[in-house]
Amino acid sequence: MSHAGNGRTLSAANFKATDRVILRENYRKLDKNASCDRIRNEILESTKWGRCPYCRLEEATTLDHILEKEDYPEFSILRLNLAPVCSRCNTLKQTNKGLVAGHERLHLYFSGYPMEEFLVSRPVLRASSVAFKFFLRAPSGIDPWWWDAIEAHFVSLDLAGRYERRAQVEMQDRRDEMLRVHAASGGSGVQRFLQSNAQSISANWSREDWLSALLIGAAGDTIFCNMGVHRL
Question: pLDDT exceeding 90 applies to what percent of the chain?
Fold first, then answer.
């Protein structure tokens, strides 16, 4: 059984309670039955370099139902409805389900995904340290429905906080190289170094990737490129 249309028009099929239990039980067998390990592993390994597609921070080790099996039991074991994700995103999605009311039906296969730039990062210089903040910026002309979905995704998975914490690690890993570049070429050299790093990330992932946004934001801040590198 399938649904016509896209993520905005999907509606749950009318099943008896017993039928819904049986359909959901199919997933338990896929997730726990040793004879299904090959199928499960194939799904987990399908994500790029093993990373979670929801956050691109952690290793994808669990399967998430894009359309929840409680609401759409007919999709419980549909391959296109099983996303390989990290346990953190899977847990947060369940815990904060109420935050995405109206958008829990967002299905990347049915609805596509807007490719406009919407994630922005900026360094914040403090007296003896630097923080890196992340926020969303609505692209001009984006469909309001898509924008609501992006915001819900960002909030429900605590992506701003998770990116900000990981940003400290990423920039610390580049600190020594940035200091060497600054000593040789000044702030403009640091800017070129970060831009080159960002281009490599974008080539492998996308311009909307959180790490690319981090490096582009740092490269675009003259104060950071000149003084901030010494405060990391």
Answer: 38
